[in-house]
């Protein structure tokens, strides 16, 4: 698995191409941070991928500090995986 032990942020991954990329990354062994604006769609993606391989972050990246909060969520997950 090429992406084993990697944490990948995929913005816009609750639908379409972003969702497809997230699913493929998870298949390749990555832990993915699903990001988007719709909680229900994000929950559906998490259910398809599996809670053991993905986490959801719902927030508009155009808001002040949103990109940092998204990165912080990925860092926190990586730290948890390394323990």
Can you describe what's shown?
This protein is α/β, with parallel strands linked by helices and 83 residues long. The protein contains three helices and three strands, in the order E-H-E-H-E-H. The chain has helices spanning 16-27, 39-49, 66-82; strands at 7-10, 31-36, 54-58. The two termini are 21 Å apart.
Short synopsis of the structure:
With 83 residues, the protein is of the alpha/beta class. It is 48% helix and 18% strand. Helix 2 (39-49) links the parallel strand 2 (31-36) and strand 3.
Index terms:
single chain, 83 residues, alpha/beta, 3 helices
Q: In one word, what is the shape?
A: globular
Query: What's the multimeric state?
Result: single chain
Distance between the termini: 21 Å
Helical residue percent band? 40-55%
Roughly how many Å is the radius of gyration?
A: 12 Å
Order of helices and strands: EHEHEH
Biggest beta sheet attributes: 3 strands, parallel
DSSP strand content: 15-25%
- Calculate the mean pLDDT score and round it: 91
């Amino acid at each position: 698995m090429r992406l084993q032990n990697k944490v990948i942020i995929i913005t816009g991954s609750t639908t379409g191409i972003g969702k497809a990329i997230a699913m493929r990354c998870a298949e390749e062994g990555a832990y993915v941070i699903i990001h988007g604006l719709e909680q229900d769609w994000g929950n559906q993606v998490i259910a398809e991928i599996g809670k053991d391989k993905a986490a959801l972050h719902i927030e508009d990246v155009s808001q002040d500090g949103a990109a940092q909060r998204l990165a912080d969520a990925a860092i926190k997950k990586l730290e948890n995986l390394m323990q």
